[in-house]
Amino acid sequence: MRNKIVAGNWKMNKDREETEVLLAELAAKLPDTTAEVMVAPTFVNLQEAVRLLENSTIQVIAQNMHYADNGAFTGEISAPMLNSIGIDTVILGHSERRAYFGETDELLAKKVAAALEKNMRVIFCFGEELEDRKSGKHFELVESQLRNALFNLEADDWNRIVLAYEPVWAIGTGETASPEQAQEMHAFIRKVITDKYNGELAEKISILYGGSVKPGNAKEIFSKPDVDGGLIGGASLVADDFMAIVEAI
Length: 249
Ligand SMILES: O=C(CO)COP(=O)(O)O
Fold this sequence. Notes:
alpha/beta; Triosephosphate isomerase; 11 helices; EC 5.3.1.1; cytoplasm; TIM Barrel; isomerase
């Protein structure tokens, strides 16, 4: 059985007070669930979030990290720093990091390796842009993103990889991939991993869908056999919406 996961990527939202309010609401409203529930507040509020959720099963995760342990990288945060405040999961490769901060597959391969070396779990994001889909290149593109950043990993490393397929055209746009489109791509991803590694490994990997998941569409998307949960942006900033999505899993 693959782990079911619902993770909230808060992006650059919520100051300290707003973070405290939302976390308290989430902790109070968390339904009984066997799924893993995670939130990724901004860096400045991570330590406080870890403290506030000490007695909750909601996990606090990071939105990004640098590949080096320390050094002259102004404005960056490293895996050991995250480890030191009790964080063991990081989102890498988000399309906003790729588009606005120039993150390439090559850089992401280094980040993934660095995170795994520090025993962290990685939620690796990838997905095509609208032009790729329109021109029918989406499968090829997704395969190349996986190949370039992850296919140098050993089979054992995959125990700590969670995949998050996020078609860029569905992020923050209100436009969701249809449940069928999500299923089609997730099944393709599992096939690509089966071909590179093996079917047993591919069957164990949780593949999340991200892109305009809301309370109204979550259940249908999550009902697809190869969709193991969601990476949620906008709807993770509203406690009732996020918890309705957790309910849907
Ligand atoms: O980018 C996302 C999660 O990482 C998805 O964002 P939205 O849910 O706001 O579309």
